[in-house]
């Protein structure tokens, strides 16, 4: 499948590549940070990957280790849909069909969230950006509001690569706790008691968009609108590619390495 071939392609960029884009925020010297810096200033962490690649699973573990918030645009949108807000009403029609919500709606929502105080030292973007337009918007926002006024640490951009069959297995087997948000999988990470959250005993739910029909549309939207983003970040150098087909602990170890080794966008 094209999306997987392209996502699994070799990492472009690298330390010597030249950044010609608006997202090239800082000098090369400023882009090299130490592990000690990471402990105090995590900066923006951008998680890319197809639906089901494990962004949410890894974001929660990264949040625990570094103490910066997970900002999942999918979770925020689902919360708005659940509460019946104006944003939720507009987003629902797109989400039910597996399509992306229009950039302007999502970008306004992300701007509101990033301006909150808990994002001062860093944050994890899970599911954003998802189009080149969103990435360009984010680059401008980070430059004008984040780097110059708050924490001057450049982003880490990680792409989790997963094969097609594994994606389908992960999406169809996913169950989520509606209370604490913990993510399970009936095949790979089942709860101790069937359909019941290990943490708070809530009955686990299946996401509405994890039906086979909607999954197919989400994967098409990924291929069409989000894959170009991989090249967008590759061209800037510093995109971190992680083989995320393996067990979660292995993926987590690689993600931590990518965050701490100092090679940033
Ligand atoms: P969103 O909620 O972001 O969904 P998604 O991108 O499709 O990603 P998922 O949440 O499905 O997967 P994930 O990568 O987080 O995987 P997870 O960790 O859960 O978006 C939903 C919708 O909202 C979109 O379709 C769109 O309409 C809208 N939207 C959101 N953001 C938008 C944006 N920026 N612009 C426009 N529209 C937007 O893992 C999946 C399963 O695999 C779990 O069961 C887990 O237990 C299991 N698993 C994870 N890792 C492993 C592993 N290593 N081995 C085995 N199993 C694993």
CATH class: Alpha Beta
pLDDT averaged over residues? 86
CATH topology, by name, is Rossmann fold
In which range does the helix fraction lie?
40-55%
SSE ordering: HHEHEHHHEHEHEEHEH
Point out poorly predicted stretches. 1-31
The radius of gyration computed from the alpha-carbon positions, rounded to a whole number of angstroms, is 18 Å
- The strand line-up of the biggest sheet is 2-3-1-4-7
**% residues in beta strands:** 5-15%
Task: Give the end-to-end Cα distance, rounded to a whole number of Å.
Answer: 28 Å
Q: What are the defining features of this structure?
A:
265 residues, alpha/beta, Rossmann fold, 5-stranded parallel β-sheet, two-stranded antiparallel sheet, 10 helices, 7 strands, 46% helix, 12% strand, globular, disordered N terminus, binds BIS(adenosine)-5'-pentaphosphate
Report on this model:
The protein has 265 residues and is α/β, with parallel strands linked by helices. The chain has one domain (2-7, 35-254): P-loop containing nucleotide triphosphate hydrolases (Rossmann fold, 3-Layer(aba) Sandwich), CATH 3.40.50.300. 46% of the residues lie in helices and 12% in strands. It contains 10 helices and 7 strands. It has helices at residues 2-7, 35-40, 55-66, 73-83, 86-97, 103-114, 132-147, 164-173, 212-236, 248-260; strands at 43-49, 70-72, 122-126, 156-161, 174-176, 183-185, 239-243. The strands form 2 sheets. Strands 2-3-1-4-7 form a 5-stranded parallel β-sheet, sandwiched between helices. The longest helix is centred in the last third of the chain and has 25 residues, at 212-236. The two termini are 28 Å apart. Mean pLDDT is 86; it is low at 1-31. The chain binds BIS(adenosine)-5'-pentaphosphate. BIS(adenosine)-5'-pentaphosphate (AP5) is lined by residues 49, 51-57, 73-74, 77, 94-95, 98-101, 106, 127-128, 130, 134, 170, 173-174, 183-185, 188-189, 209, 218, 244, 247-248, 251.
